[in-house]
Design brief:
Layout (H helix, E strand, L loop, with lengths): L1 H11 L12 E3 L5 E3 H10 L5 E3 L6 E3 L12 H12 L17 E3 L4 E3 L1 H9 L8 E3 H6 L20 E3 L4 E3 L1 H7 L7 E3 H56 L6 H44 L8 H18 L7 H11 L2 E4 L9 E4 L3 E5 L6 E6 L5 E5 L4 E4 L5 E5 L5 E6 L5 E5 L4 E4 L15 H4 L2 E5 L5 E5 L4 E5 L8 E4 L7 E5 L2 E6 L2 E6 L4 E6 L4 E6 L5 E7 L4 E7 L5 E10 L9 E4 L5 E4 L3 E5 L1
Antiparallel strand pairs: 1-2, 3-4, 5-6, 5-7, 8-9, 8-10, 11-12, 13-35, 14-15, 15-16, 16-17, 18-19, 19-20, 21-22, 22-23, 23-24, 25-26, 26-27, 27-28, 29-30, 30-31, 31-32, 33-34, 34-35
């Protein structure tokens, strides 16, 4: 009887949340007691609110400044716990009245043994594999005793049943007396425990998935915040470089501009930080309450503990109803941050070097609307635009239309040789060679016809070798300026080369949503893909790679700079609104003087 009474006392010393013996017990205004650590976890889950809701009765207690230390300590309970810890445990196997002090506890037998009984117990063949705990480890708190659930009304009876309506465990005698009437639902305790643990595991799994969802959102914000920071850094670096070339009198102006950049970008970063903080708080809420619910090692046994865990499970389910993050808001903020750039003035009589601007372009309507097929920079710092009408239009860097040359056939591509001769690829896949004064030379090239090769593109490298790509044939032929047959072929395995450009000892190929950098044997070295966006590439005057990203449906173009490994360097133009043409065919080039030319089928845009 004494052992049963002691077992009841020990169960009363367990926190309803963590199911372990109370540590630093604190009392709420509703008189329920919990561990200080458990209350801290619950307060963290409920966020910045200073009201703490009791998991058992759901009454609210105000926690001043969210400091659980300020709640009253249950001194009587704390003293009782110390008394129980300090009380000797006697051997429960010895039959004599003068019981010796126990030195071990057998988890499987549920009994305490003195030295003599422990020696006998360890020699019993059937008990060799029992789990035996040293009393010193139990008293130090290193290990916990697995207690057997006994009925408080009938201490000799195990609570082998569970009433799902009353939400309590009961022995068989209590079931017969109290839980046989209509409205009660009695099941085996083991069945309830199994079902309860499964529901906890399901909640934990859902919490992990929801946390993962918000973590992806946080990672996305971090990634976009880094892009905005890169824009901020690049813009700041441009300003510093420009002003370092001037005398001290412009230093004050430089700092004003840097402050303007920071003012425009820090607001965006602050918005992103607030979104990130909100998402991280939700992750913390989810993981905290999930850990509180799932970190215990046993099923709650009494009414308060069951009520507490029912409440916590409901709280977790409510938290899981939080909608998944909406990426629209951070994208809108990011767009503001990415639009910042630095425009330099070159009028040396002005004190200021420039000002902070969004991307601007000079827009020139092409003489033949909807006819652009190709564009290439000339050796004299102009831009040649080839048209399907058979004309090649020449534009200066300031957008002036200067000439109309070559009035025959349909121009699909243009390439300039080092001696200022140039080649033109026409609609029948034929190549013609011209002099600088636009005289056609008597040189022929044995290219593939349209039926065999499909649509074509052309480029010329620094060695004056001519490259012709074929979409249908999926290969590139290489010709010398002397004409005749191709001197070799480059395979394009698995993709159609829609456009090609020469880049050092490599070629840049464009195929739909993908840019590939290949060597002159056809081996793909690097690849860049943007699903849903048309990509077009050009070589910059600084020997980097420029890539335009086209959202044709929205009529938006962005232009970025990349390394020779297709690694992003900086954003030059962000979501510039263009007049959307009917034909979704575009071209990108850079003037030798630095202006970027972006051409649609209808218009030429020159970004300074």
């Amino acid at each position: 009887m004494a052992d049963a009474f002691k077992n009841v006392i020990v169960q009363s010393l367990e926190c309803p949340v963590c199911l372990n013996t109370f540590t630093d017990p604190k009392i709420l205004s509703c008189s329920h007691t919990y561990c200080k650590t458990c209350l801290n976890n619950l307060l963290e889950f409920y966020g910045n609110d200073q009201m703490l809701r009791c998991p058992v009765c759901r009454a609210e207690t105000q926690v001043q400044n969210q400091d659980v230390n300020k709640l009253p300590t249950n001194l009587a309970l704390k003293s009782l716990i110390e008394d129980v810890k300090n009380q000797y445990q006697y051997c429960t196997h010895c039959k004599s009245e003068d019981q010796p002090q126990a030195v071990v506890y057998c988890q499987d037998c549920g009994m305490y043994f003195c030295i003599a009984c422990h020696n006998k117990h360890s020699q019993w063949q059937n008990f060799i594999n029992h789990e035996v705990l040293a009393m010193s480890e139990i008293l130090s708190g290193k290990v916990s005793v697995r207690r057997y659930r006994k009925c408080r009304k009938h201490p000799k009876e195990d609570e082998e049943c569970f009433c799902s309506v009353c939400r309590r465990f009961a022995c068989f005698r209590c079931v017969v007396i109290e839980h046989t009437k209509e409205g009660h639902g009695v099941i085996e305790a083991a069945v309830y425990e199994s079902s309860h643990m499964k529901s906890i595991e399901d909640l934990k799994s859902k919490a992990d998935k929801k946390s993962s969802c918000f973590q992806k959102y946080v990672d996305f914000i971090d990634e976009q915040k880094e892009h905005v920071s890169n824009v901020q850094k690049q813009c700041t670096d441009d300003i510093k470089k420009a002003y370092d070339d001037l005398v001290r009198q412009v230093t004050e102006k430089k700092e004003i501009l840097i402050g303007e950049v920071n003012g425009r970008t820090e607001g965006v970063k602050k918005e992103l930080d607030e979104m990130k903080k909100s998402a991280e708080e939700h992750i913390t809420h989810l993981t905290t309450i999930a850990d509180v619910v799932t970190s215990r090692t046993k099923v709650p046994s009494d009414t308060d503990a069951l009520a507490a865990h029912d409440t916590l499970c409901q709280d977790l389910q409510e938290a899981l109803k939080q909608e998944d993050p909406d990426y629209k808001q951070p994208r809108q903020s990011i767009k503001k941050g990415k639009s910042v750039s630095f425009k330099r003035n070159f009028e040396m009589d002005e004190l200021g070097l420039g000002k902070i601007v969004n991307a601007v372009a000079k827009i020139i309507a092409l003489p033949n609307e909807g006819s652009m097929n190709a564009m290439v920079s000339t050796s004299d710092d102009r831009m040649a635009v080839g048209c399907i009408t058979g004309n090649m239009e020449i534009f200066s860097a300031d957008g002036q239309h200067q000439q109309k040359v070559v009035k025959e056939g349909s121009i699909l591509g243009v390439g300039f040789l080092s001696d200022d001769r140039y080649v033109i690829l026409d609609g029948s896949n034929s190549i013609a060679l011209y002099t600088l004064d636009y005289t056609k030379l008597n040189v022929s090239f044995e290219t593939l016809g349209h039926d065999e090769g499909g649509f074509t593109s052309i480029t010329v490298d620094s060695d004056d070798q001519i490259y012709v790509s074929y979409r249908k044939a999926k290969k590139i032929q290489v010709f010398s300026p002397a004409g005749g047959k191709a001197i070799r072929e480059i395979p394009c395995d698995g993709y159609e080369p829609q456009e090609i450009s020469s880049y050092n000892d490599h070629l840049i190929t464009h195929a739909g949503y993908t840019i590939r950098l290949i060597d002159k044997q056809g081996v793909v070295k690097y690849k860049l893909k943007r699903l849903g966006h048309y990509l077009h590439a050009a070589v910059s005057q600084g020997n980097t790679i420029l890539i335009s990203t086209l959202n044709h449906n929205a009529g938006l173009v962005s232009i970025d700079e990349y390394t020779n490994e297709l690694k992003h360097v900086q954003n030059l133009v962000n979501d510039y609104k263009i007049e959307k043409p009917e034909r979704n065919w575009y071209s990108l080039q850079q003037y030798r003087s630095g202006e970027i030319a972006f051409c649609t089928a209808d218009r030429l845009y020159i970004f300074h």
